[in-house]
């Protein structure tokens, strides 16, 4: 499958799109004044230990305190040993005012601070260096058993040789994970990477000793450099960059760390914006909409809440050519592929519930679930399908590390306050009539003036005019109406005159 990376640079933000066979699959946005924190390493200070939650709040110098759970504090081996002797107590490990090195594994979302881990690691194009332990792992996406064994044996030899070269001056241990990009890597490339990562970690250690908490010890690469480190695989054929300055920086970065990437780089000097050329702007607009249309005529509805995301499949205008069951089956099959792609583009994370159209055929249900699994298999973010519930809902989880596309680009609607709907003019009219009665009882006056939006005033002076007249007689007070063009539908004021 042919892949291309598009890098759009402006003074305000960096945007990257992954395109497969001409179709956008993933979109990443990083704003210069709101860079993500994932991967950053901090020297933090414990501000509060919560024994009931087996967690602690850590001050890392950001606006909101970050969250560290005991599962992310202890190495896996230590946790297993602790479980044998009873549940570990976080109060024995952390106390208020303690300084600790932590790494951000999830960006702040909404009112929640960043999620932290005390299991530190630094990454390169080929390897992830884990500070704790001596484990040597290989990415599951490298499928060849022969290649996995070759890489593991070669890495083990390289690590032993590099440690021997460093001698007593650098008694660093640590473990390594070979990333997908290491498939086919040569010995010299891995050796240089191991040396680079160990030098980088020594530099972080030196800063940790001298720095005062809270402070940042290591900041992950900006998005346009992470593209070369994390996203360039064997299927990427071209990386188009629309900024000459950033193109030069990436060329220098590639020559230093991975010369094979440089041949993929291409400066795009065209007058037409890069994202318009590949219809990425249109794709972003679609990803912000609640409803996504299917080619068959059906549609999918996406709803995102703080706790989970829900996805509802509907046949819509698709009536099929054979029978109802076949129509539903084809709609669900098409929806499964579109849902997997939209989850990547929208960067949905956490719990995701999919409500496919009910199917009576067991084989049809199995085929739709298989189509969803196959489509999700290409997602680089860890995604699991928990199966189908008794109600016929498909439960999935997708690892959340950063904000979704909607959370980055949008803010809560000041009119509906995030509900997605507002009260009708009829409801507002009745609410105003009730409130007029309350104000008339609270104040002695001859007249009341109602200020509201045009649709509400129109309702009060037309359909509900008889109720207004009866109310005037009941409270013995005249009621005046005035349209306020700047008022939202749910906004009104009642002023005694």
Automatic annotation (TrEMBL):
Keyword Metal-binding among record annotations: yes
NCBIfam families found in the cross-reference section: PRK11712.1, RNaseEG
Example GO molecular function: hydrolase activity
Sorted UniProt keywords: Cytoplasm, Endonuclease, Hydrolase, Magnesium, Metal-binding, Nuclease, RNA-binding, rRNA processing, rRNA-binding, tRNA processing, tRNA-binding
Compartments, as annotated in UniProt: Cytoplasm
One Pfam family this sequence matches: RNase_E_G
InterPro entries: NA-bd_OB-fold, RNA-bd_AU-1/RNase_E/G, RNase_E/G, RNase_E_G_thioredoxin-like, S1_domain
Principal subcellular localization: cytoplasm
Superkingdom, natural source: Bacteria
Organism this protein belongs to: SAR92 clade bacterium H455
Residues in S1 motif domain copies: 39-119
Cross-referenced SUPFAM superfamilies: Nucleic acid-binding proteins (SSF50249)
Record-stated family: Belongs to the RNase E/G family. RNase G subfamily.
Cofactor(s), names only, from the UniProt record: Mg(2+)
Keyword check for Phosphoprotein: no
Coiled coil, from the record: none
Membrane-spanning segments: none
Gene that produces this protein: rng
Descriptive protein name: Ribonuclease G
CDD domains: S1_RNase_E (cd04453)
